[in-house]
Amino acid sequence: MSSPRSSTRLRISEIFHSLQGESTRVGLPTVFVRLTGCPLRCVWCDTEYAFTGGQIRTLDDVLQEVAGHGAHYVCVTGGEPLAQKSCLVLLTALCDAGYSVSLETSGALDVADVDPRVSKIMDLKAPGSGEVSKNRLTNLAHIGLADEIKMVLADEADYLWAREMIATHRLSERCSVLVSPVQGKLDPQDLAAWVLRDRLAVRMQLQMHRIIWGERTGV
């Protein structure tokens, strides 16, 4: 009789070793495990190639490839990784193997069952994304100091929305809050000026991997 782990299958878009380009872990050598599929269609999405395709792989195969890169940090991302039920098994297996694990999730799916050892990097979708109605605000009850909330902003209206969300839900008291501009839509200097003007308790970030390598997969 096979164990749940030995029978676990995942649809994987790519696995690669790079520098973390976002979050408070920015700059750290990290293995990225990108799962295929996403129920959202944010208008500014930069990983549309992960919506479909990919390869069905066993959990043991994924763990073996991750181990081959020799990194301590692992980021499970997508698409929306939690759209695959087996993602929860993968996260626990990575933690059991001794990695420092982060999960990049859209915030549209329930995070309650994510292994507590995982650092959840959860989006709140601003109106400019076209998916603001998909925010699952009940997830905030499962966000702690080891987690992070990220908001990607396309214009000043998005910024004002983010400012209101931070105040209403006291987000900066829950965890680190990250804001970043949609590349090509919002000038980083404008976002920086608003953050400083309002003395907003956030960390502004840019996508370091895109600054270094541009728009390409596997980075």
UniProtKB/TrEMBL annotation:
| GO annotation terms (biological process) | tRNA queuosine(34) biosynthetic process
Q: Which GO terms describe its molecular function?
A: 4 iron, 4 sulfur cluster binding; carbon-nitrogen lyase activity; magnesium ion binding; S-adenosyl-L-methionine binding
Q: Which residues bind Mg(2+)?
A: 47
Q: What is its EC number?
A: 4.3.99.3
Q: Which residues form the Radical SAM core domain?
A: 25-215
User: This protein's superkingdom?
Assistant: Bacteria
Reactions this protein catalyses: 6-carboxy-5,6,7,8-tetrahydropterin + H(+) = 7-carboxy-7-carbaguanine + NH4(+)
Keywords annotated in UniProt: 4Fe-4S, Iron, Iron-sulfur, Lyase, Magnesium, Metal-binding, Queuosine biosynthesis, S-adenosyl-L-methionine
Q: Which cofactor does it need?
A: Mg(2+); [4Fe-4S] cluster; S-adenosyl-L-methionine
Residues that hold S-adenosyl-L-methionine according to the record: 44-46, 79
Q: What class of enzyme is it?
A: lyase
Q: Name the PROSITE patterns for this protein.
A: RADICAL_SAM
Q: In which pathway does it act?
A: Purine metabolism; 7-cyano-7-deazaguanine biosynthesis
Residues annotated for [4Fe-4S] cluster binding in this entry: 38, 42, 45
> Per the annotation, how and in what number is the cofactor bound?
Binds 1 [4Fe-4S] cluster. The cluster is coordinated with 3 cysteines and an exchangeable S-adenosyl-L-methionine. Binds 1 S-adenosyl-L-methionine per subunit.
Pfam families registered for this protein in UniProt: Radical_SAM (PF04055)
Q: How does it assemble?
A: Homodimer.
Q: What does this protein do?
A: Catalyzes the complex heterocyclic radical-mediated conversion of 6-carboxy-5,6,7,8-tetrahydropterin (CPH4) to 7-carboxy-7-deazaguanine (CDG), a step common to the biosynthetic pathways of all 7-deazapurine-containing compounds.
Per the record, the similarity remark reads: Belongs to the radical SAM superfamily. 7-carboxy-7-deazaguanine synthase family.
Name of protein: 7-carboxy-7-deazaguanine synthase
What would be the name of the gene that encodes this protein?
A: queE
